[in-house]
Amino acid sequence: MDEALDLVYRAERGRVLARLIAVVKDFDLAEDAVQDAFVAAATAWAVTGIPSNPAGWLVTTARRKAIDRLRRSASAERRHRAWGELAIAWDAGDSPGPISDDRLRLIFTCCHPALSLDAQVALTLRSLGGLTTGEVARAFLVAEATLAQRIVRAKRKIRDAAIPYRIPSLDEFPERLGAVLAVVYLIFNAGYLASSGAELVRVDLCDEGVRLAGLVVELLPEEPEPLGLAALLLFQDSRRDARSDDRGRPLTLEEQDRGRWDAGQVAAGRDLLGRAQRLDRPGPYQLKAAIAGVHAGARRAEETDWTTIVLLYDRLLEWEPTPVVRLNRAVAVAMAQGPADGLALLDDPEMAEALDDYHLYHSTRADLLRRAGRPEEAVAVYHDARRRTENAAERSFLDRRLEELREKPTIAGDGVGPG
Amino acid sequence: MRYMLIIHNDPELHPVPGEPGWDELMAGYVAFGEELASRGRPFTGDPLNDPSTATTIRVRNGETLTVDGPFAETKEWMSGFYIIECDDLDQALAAAAMVPSAKFGSVEVRPVAEM
Question: Among partner residues A163, A168, A172, which is closest to B89 by beta-carbon distance?
Fold first, then answer.
């Protein structure tokens, strides 16, 4: 029973909570009531077995528990209480309502720009993800108390500043959807870019990112950018097992054993990207997914279609004219046309200044110098890169490159950092 | 819900009377006031004189201490406010974005704590 209940918890908690928040308009009360309902389920279902509609049972029970809690609450809140009871009782007569709309409203609330990005991430994981506060805290390497405090503060702001539970209006929709996608991408990347120390926990974040992207797709099936993001995450996640060697050291895209890429995830990514493209409204996540898709399609690194990747970066620059995108484009140019052309782009003074603090700028430059047959300069620039990162995995990668240059200054191979 | 829109200005960027941009700014405030009035919900608001005209009072152990200032340590200072009634934060944020000085300084949106 415990195991079955746990499965229901992971699968249904998000939608039950979203429904309850929609009904009681109070995050804390809804969370407590949903918790009560799961406790009640543990007892009741042990006798009756799991009902045919567990979410419906949980919503009904949680609603009753919410009323119980309101009745017990301190007299100072009586005013609130009367209003709350009325609202819940009024709503109780209704049909369960479109649960997917509840979750959509909730995700827009959790990712509201009036909340700090940290709080958006924590709230989204806590309310729509399947992780506990402790798991989220460990994954982001913060103390559980710190994270709990962050969530409490965010929930208080939602209540006291009246951040609404609603789907944004048409004119603000693109920006607000962008915020939701940014939070999901950040959750995934926190798992993906993790140093190896916390690896096991961090993998949960990749899973959560993929799951949340899937949820946004399910809730907004006619929006192309969520499809693009979901495809991008699947392409990236397909390399999970191939991204490090047996000693846990990161490998570049070129060095990875492509046979270990997850073909199922790649196929699912292609499916999603195809759906996005049929909607014919391009956007940055779709372009990033298309770039990842080109990599996923090359059975061997030498077969990578770098010319197409350069064209995709050209289009991405129209959406995101950032130095980092220009850096990635320069790598693609180097691979398509030769290292000298890439170096010419990197040596542009404007880019050099904008990215001087960014270790990947220097390691990219070092790599192109190495491949252009300029090993002494490459060594110096690898040291520039090493001084600019604290990340152990990145440092060990740069040390490996430096070691290779000492042994064999003209070694072939590409890759600017862990893939 | 009532919200206070607290307008902070950067005096180096903000137009002053006689400067180009001042008339446009004032016309913007008139239009904003008309927009609020057209909503049919109570509101109030006023500009404030600059911090050099301010006086601060503290009462300690029954004694009243009066000092000149405060003189803002930050570049921006509070130059005016509105109190408006809205359904939720999104409405208040949309109104704040229409405050003409938002183009030069910033507008802090603070919910009134209803007692």
Answer: A163
> Does the global pTM surpass 0.90?
no
Q: Using an 8 Å CB-CB cutoff, list chain A residues near B1.
A: 162
Distance from the B89 Cα atom to the nearest Cα atom in chain A, whole angstroms: 5
Tokens describing residue A61: 């029970």
Contact B87 A114 (CB under 8 A): no
Give the gap in angstroms from C-alpha A304 to the nearest C-alpha of chain B: 47
At A221, is the secondary structure helix, strand, or coil? coil
Q: Percent of chain A at pLDDT above 70?
A: 88
Nearest CA to A333 out of A315, A372, A307, A314 is that of: A307
What domains can you pick out in chain B, each with its CATH number?
A: 2-111 (3.30.70.1060)
Residue B111 is nearest to which of A161, A168, A172, comparing CB atoms? A161
B114 and chain A: CB distance < 8 Å anywhere? no
Q: Is the dihedral of CA A378, A384, A385, A390 positive or negative?
A: positive
pLDDT band at A195 (very low <50, low <70, confident <90, very high): very low
Structure-block tokens of residue A376: 């002494």
Task: For CA atoms A55, A57, A59, A62, give the dihedral sign.
Answer: negative
Q: What is the token pair recorded at A399?
A: 């040390």
What ipTM does the predicted assembly reach?
A: 0.84
The span from the CA of A378 to the CA of B56, in Å, is 62
The pLDDT tens digits of the residues spanning A172-190 come to 898 899 999 999 998 898 8
